[in-house]
Amino acid sequence: MDLNGIELNEPGDIVNGFALHFSRAYRTSTTSPPLLFGWFPSFGVGLITEADVLSSIAKLKKDDCIPGVMVRECAAVLTRPLVALYTLIVNRSFFPSAWKVAKVIPIFKQGDRKSITLLDL
To answer: In which domain of life is the source organism classified (predicted)?
Structure first.
C-alpha cells in the first residue's frame, strides 16, 4: 500500500495510513452536546413507534449475527420489546457501546489498487 507516494509495508503503518486518509470522513468535537434529562446528552430523536420498528424489520437483509429472515418471521414477538428498548435508549440518551462498532468497507475508484488515496467511503 502507499499513501501520497510513501510505501507502507508494516500492518500498523497501513492502518495509520487508512486512518489518516479517511479522517476527512469524520470530525472530533471539542464541545459538549446539549444536555437533556439531567446529565445525559440528547439524541434529538422523536417518538419511536411499532410501525417504525416493523418498517425497519421489513427492510432487513443480511445481518452479521441474526439473519434478517429470522427477525422478520419473529416480528410480531420482537416489535414491542424493540420499541421499549429503543425508547429507553432515546429517553436515557445512552447508546450501547457494542452498537457503535462498524464495519467500514472502502470503495476502490480507479488506478493503482495499492494507493490508499484512490479509495473512497
So the answer is: Eukaryota
**Separation of alpha carbons 101 and 119, rounded Å:** 21
Instruction: Count other C-beta atoms under 10 Å from residue 62's C-beta.
Output: 8
Judge whether 39 lies within some domain.
no
88 with 107, same domain: the answer is no
CA dihedral of 2, 3, 5, 10, whole degrees rounded to 10: -40
- Regarding pTM above 0.70, the answer is no
Q: Which helix (H) or strand (E) holds 6?
A: strand 6-7
- For 51-81, give the DSSP string: HHHHHHHHT----SSS-HHHHHHTHHHHHHH
C-alpha cell at 10: 508494516
pLDDT recorded at residue 50: 92
Instruction: Give the structural domain span for 112.
Output: 1-34+101-121
